Amino acid sequence: MSEDSVFQGNSAVIFVTIENNDKLPLNLGGMTSAVFSLKRSEYDSEVLIEKTLEDGITVENVLAGKISVELEPGDTDGFVGPYVYEIKLIVDGKEWTVLEDILVIMLGVTE
After folding, report:
1. What's the CA dihedral at 70, 75, 76, 77 to 10 degrees?
2. Which CATH number is 3-106 given?
3. What's the half-sphere exposure (Cβ side, CA atoms, 13 Å) at 94?
C-alpha cells in the first residue's frame, strides 16, 4: 500500500492507473461502474466518503486505464487521520477491486 494525503477541508484529486493481472493498463472501454469508498479501516463496514462515475470519478484515458477521483472540501471536512480507500470497477461484466490504499487527512495549521 502507498499513501496519499490531503489537508482537512481541502480539494484533492487522486490519479490512478488501473492494471490487469499482467500489470498492463486495463482497457476501460467496457466499464459500466466505478466506486471509490473511504472507510476508517479495511474491516469497517461504514463508508465515510463514496464517489462514482456520476459523482467524482472521471475516466482520464480509456485505453491507458487512467481515472481520477475528485474530493471536494466538504468530503474531507471533519476527518483527521489515516483512512483506507478502495476502488471497485465493473468492466465487461466482471467486478474488480483494483486498488486498496491509504489516505491521510491532515489538520491544517490554521484549523
Report:
1. 140
2. 2.60.40.3350
3. 9
Distance CA 103, CA 106 (A): 10
User: Cα(42)–Cα(55) distance, rounded to whole angstroms?
Assistant: 23
Which residue type does 38 have?
L
Query: Using alpha carbons only, what angle is made at residue 101 by residues 88 and 40, rounded to the nearest 5 degrees?
Result: 90
Residue 6: CB atoms within 10 Å: 19
Which pTM does this prediction carry?
A: 0.88
The end-to-end CA distance of the chain, in Å, is 29
pLDDT in tens, 9-38: 999 999 999 988 899 999 999 999 999 999
The domain limits of the chain are 3-106
Q: For residue 22, what are the contacts with CB-CB under 8 A and spacing of at least 6?
A: none
